[in-house]
Design a protein that fits this description.
The protein is elongated. With 391 residues, it is an alpha+beta fold. Helices cover 63% and strands 9% of the residues. The longest helix has 53 residues, at 174-226. Strand 4 (366-370) and strand 5 form a beta hairpin. The protein is built from eleven helices and five strands, in the order H-H-H-H-H-H-H-H-H-E-H-E-E-H-E-E. A five-stranded mixed beta sheet has the order 1-2-3-5-4, with helices on one face.
Length: 391
């Protein structure tokens, strides 16, 4: 999504003068086109909007209304282009109606189309423009025939109103609309990430602990059958089952640690990051400079971010040492992970960097990767600082 940009000084038309210059003729052309353009826009929105609203009690009413509003967006785009070419109005295009992360389907399309603020502002623009188009066409035509000596001043005054209409009704609604689109995108990322985590947990349970427990149950069943006729074999099978129980418990602990490690809950980021650093293939120095703990959600994101980055160091970096620094700066939690490995990491390199960037962006965070070929690699991440809930 893009916000409207104030028109720079060098893009403004020069002051109106008695001589009929190039800018004046552009403004006159714009004013003369106002009537036919306004008439087409008014007829379109009057027919599609009133028809859609009138038929809203039927199954075709709301889809027709959504389609009509989508067409109104096209009218707004054409009017912004006309204003740019003839009036020099620098208004950027609004964001697309549908974010790539928003769930697809008929009903999401229908809901987004009917509630589209950009389209509704264009509808208002088209209604307002009809009387204004009649007025500006008549005044400009009379001025060309009778008042041509002062035509530049009349054209400038009328087109200034046009400029104000375009900026007020056809420009993006600044940060509000931009933020709505970002939040819709972030919501989609969070939903996708949560679904992927649930699938991972389900797969780990099915392929790991569950399969081991099924084998354990079968082994104990066989041991029960052999208990009387072959006690020694039954005892060996029970010993084997005891080993399987220990392995199943370890797998469940590892799975629980992947969801939220106990050391993080009990002792905070300093101890938790030191724990994962000890498992890295390269020596890692951890420095945590925090006087208090952030909110649990932010703490968990910070932990898993460092965890994945250190896994990348182990798998890909070929580093001899690494460093993790974590500190608070005003209302931000900053994380920096550096290694002296071979470098060359990219957000599209398949090492999970893009996923980390999306997850941090979903909570209003930042992710910066600096990894020239040959190293070193430095990843800087920022998270919003949120106070921890009181117990």
């Amino acid at each position: 999504m893009t916000a409207s940009i104030a028109e720079p000084d060098n893009d403004r038309p020069p002051p109106a003068r008695l001589a009929l210059g190039r800018h004046t003729w552009k403004e006159v052309a714009h004013l003369l086109c106002n009537l036919p353009v306004a008439l087409i826009g008014f007829v379109y929105v009057a027919f599609t909007i009133f028809t859609g609203v009138g038929l809203s009690v039927t199954v075709i009413g709301l889809p027709l209304l959504a389609a009509g509003l989508a067409g109104a967006r096209g009218i707004g785009k054409a009017e912004r282009s006309r204003a740019r070419s003839l009036l020099g109005v620098r208004v950027e295009e609004p964001s697309p109606l549908h974010s790539p992360h928003v769930r697809e389907g008929f009903f999401p399309w229908l809901r987004a189309g009917v509630k589209d603020p950009v389209a509704w502002r264009t509808v208002l623009y088209c209604f307002v423009r009809l009387p204004w188009g009649v007025l500006t066409f008549a005044v400009t035509l009379v001025s060309l025939l009778v008042l041509w000596p002062v035509l530049p001043f009349i054209a400038r005054g009328l087109t200034n109103v046009d400029r104000a209409m375009v900026r007020g009704l056809l420009s993006p609604s600044d940060e509000l609309e931009r933020r709505i689109a970002e939040l819709e995108s972030d919501r989609g990322i969070v939903v996708d990430t949560a679904a992927a985590d649930l699938r991972r947990i389900e797969r780990d349970l099915h392929d790991g602990a569950q399969a081991r427990l099924v084998a354990l149950a079968m082994g104990l069943g066989l041991a029960k059958e052999k208990l009387l006729e072959d006690p020694e074999a039954a005892s060996a099978m029970v010993d084997e089952a005891h080993g399987e129980v220990k392995l199943a418990l370890q797998e469940l602990r590892d799975l629980a640690r992947g969801i939220h490690p106990a050391v993080l809950t009990d002792r905070g980021l300093d101890a938790a990051l030191s724990s994962i650093a000890s498992r890295c293939t390269a020596p890692v120095k951890v420095t945590v400079d925090l006087t208090e703990r952030p909110a649990e959600a932010i703490e968990g994101i910070a932990y898993f971010t460092v965890s994945e980055l250190l896994q990348n160091v182990s798998k890909h970096a070929q580093a001899t040492n690494a460093r993790v620094d974590l500190w608070r700066a005003n209302d931000r939690l900053l994380i920096q992970v550096t290694d002296d490995g071979r470098g060359g990491a990219r957000l599209d390199g398949g090492s999970g960097m893009a996923g980390l960037a999306e997850r941090l962006g979903a909570v209003d965070g930042l992710f910066v990767l600096d990894s020239p070929v040959g190293g070193p690699t430095t990843v800087t991440a920022e998270l919003p600082w949120r106070e921890r809930a009181k117990a």
